[in-house]
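User: quick one, sequence for these tokens?
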């Protein structure tokens, strides 16, 4: 299944921190990855699927629980997640998030930017 807009007009993703006592917004805006936890003790990354299906993706970022994603953020708050995010249900999007940009896996050549 091809994602709804396959990332066309996909915004750059920036990081926003929520401490352990904050609440994740009901609706996640495209272009924001929420990192939940106190500095040095982060445990969850949350983002809206970049394909446009509006699914909420919750990724474990604790390295002692598998699977987990590593994350970095640059001086402009652009975020990188690794490994790739591969949805096995729903829209079945598969992508890397590198320096805030969505890099689709298996994207047809006609969609490459």
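Assistant:
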């Amino acid at each position: 299944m091809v994602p709804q807009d396959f990332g066309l007009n996909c915004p750059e993703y920036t990081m926003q921190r929520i401490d352990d006592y904050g609440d994740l917004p009901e609706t996640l805006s495209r272009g924001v990855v929420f990192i939940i936890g106190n500095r040095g003790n982060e445990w969850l990354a949350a983002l809206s699927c970049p394909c446009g299906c509006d699914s909420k993706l919750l990724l474990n970022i604790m390295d002692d629980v598998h699977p987990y994603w590593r994350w970095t953020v640059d001086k402009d708050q652009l975020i990188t997640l690794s490994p790739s995010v591969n949805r096995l249900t729903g829209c079945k999007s598969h992508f890397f998030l590198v320096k805030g940009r969505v890099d689709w896996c298996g994207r047809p050549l006609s969609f490459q930017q």
